[in-house]
């Protein structure tokens, strides 16, 4: 697993299913505005969490691109789910700022809730069509910058679904090592 450590915060990249990260306090959902079960990450998270999650989400919806909300994790093996609405590429603008906002807000919610470990999927890079490499630079850029100031979070895991996506994450994380 490729990783780097900044200010005692480990950022790591791995292949896997976001709904099977049993050792993480929190997992992040690539949500839709209504916070309903959908395909991809949202489908996997809601399937594993059970109907209680859908019920809890109803009162928190709708959310806007760039926003994030936190719920309990129900039947998932975690304590919390942080639901982020990424931008639909080519529709929600400025896409880069909205995507960065998702990652920043999720990290802020984690800090406020005493979360020590969190797993992120590659938000917006599936159904929402954000090009993976550009999205990766934003995700890892926010994480590496935020790591300098985190006090609660100790472990940030990027969970990729495809080996080719993991290779891009690893390469960008490697490049960032040279810049800080
Ligand atoms: N674990 C980790 N990564 C996954 C998983 C999984 N189980 N499944 C897919 N991915 P997406 P978005 C990867 O479409 O683009 C939903 O229907 C996938 O390969 O889940 O933000 C919602 O309801 C891709 O790289 O999220 C929304 O309507 C990345 O996760 C909409 O899709 C994100 O893919 C959100 O679209």
UniProtKB/TrEMBL annotation:
Pfam families: Macro (PF01661)
Domain Macro residue range list: 1-177
Xref: InterPro entries: Macro_dom (IPR002589), Macro_dom-like (IPR043472)
PANTHER family to which the protein is assigned, alphabetical: GANGLIOSIDE INDUCED DIFFERENTIATION ASSOCIATED PROTEIN 2-RELATED, MACRO DOMAIN-CONTAINING PROTEIN
Name of the molecule in the record: Phosphatase
Gene source species: Thiohalobacter thiocyanaticus
